[in-house]
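Minutes, project check-in
Item: structure for the 193-residue chain
Input as provided by the requester:
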Amino acid sequence: MLPTLIICAYLIGSISAAIIVCKILNLPDPRTQGSNNPGATNVFRIGGKKAAAVVLIGDGLKGALPVLVAQYLDIELLGMTFIAMAAFLGHVYPIFFGFKGGKGVATFIGALLALNYLAGLSFAITWLFVAKVLKISSLSALIATLLMPAYFYFITDNLEATYVVGVICLWIFYTHRSNIKRMLAGDEGQIKS
């Protein structure tokens, strides 16, 4: 059952909320505008708050729904973290969009909220606090990501599941490598209200 759920989670993760929302709203393809990233932050740049909010919710649901189905089927926490990873990888490497996807933060938050709502809230609160202070979305995501394995282990006391979460966190740093270069160069854009 677990392999089937992992494949389904990857396929659900591969559905790009950003591309679909931009198409429905007659906005430019987010892969060709701004940061060329099909995620909520880039959709905010090209389409505003409402479009970005829909993308954020859609990307979060891609992470949450497969994990919630696994919970309903009594899959253990370790198995659910692999399902979360599959949804995340679907977002980053979507089979429906030439394996060129987003950076995975919203999908990861959705999965975390489903895995353990305290872990998800810890990530979201850290992101919001850092964003409020430093006003750089990518840096907020990276700081929350850096702290997530410690949060997750403290909350769940499950070392094996924390290893899987840690791998996802490392992958988020990899997906943000261009942002890290821009931050080091002082060129990363700030959050505009």
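Outcome recorded: The CA atoms of residues 13 and 91 lie 5 Å apart.
No further action items on this chain.
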